[in-house]
UniProtKB/TrEMBL annotation:
InterPro entries xrefs: Dimeric_a/b-barrel, DUF1330
Pfam family, one: DUF1330
PANTHER family associated with the record: BLR0684 PROTEIN, PTHR41521
Signal peptide: none
Residues annotated as domain DUF1330: 3-94
Protein name per UniProt: DUF1330 domain-containing protein
Amino acid sequence: MAAYAIGSLTLLNADWVPEYSAHMPALAQKHGGKPLAKGAPVIIEGTPAVPETQIIIEFPSMEHAHAWYNDPAHAPLKKLRQGGAEFSMVLVNGL
């Protein structure tokens, strides 16, 4: 069953973005990840706290998503992201 990594990001600075962007797509693809959406969310109901950017990556399974997140090559990218953005992520099983 597919799994979806849904990230919410608000930039604090953009210094880290070029290096991160140069490596993250290949790392996600290594684990079967396929980007589905990236952009500024639009509120259509309620008053949620809205990040600047939402990201959705589809993985073949929860196991693939966890393998991507825990891959040793992800550690330096997480550090870059954490140093330059407010970020949170959840994993959701597909239907």
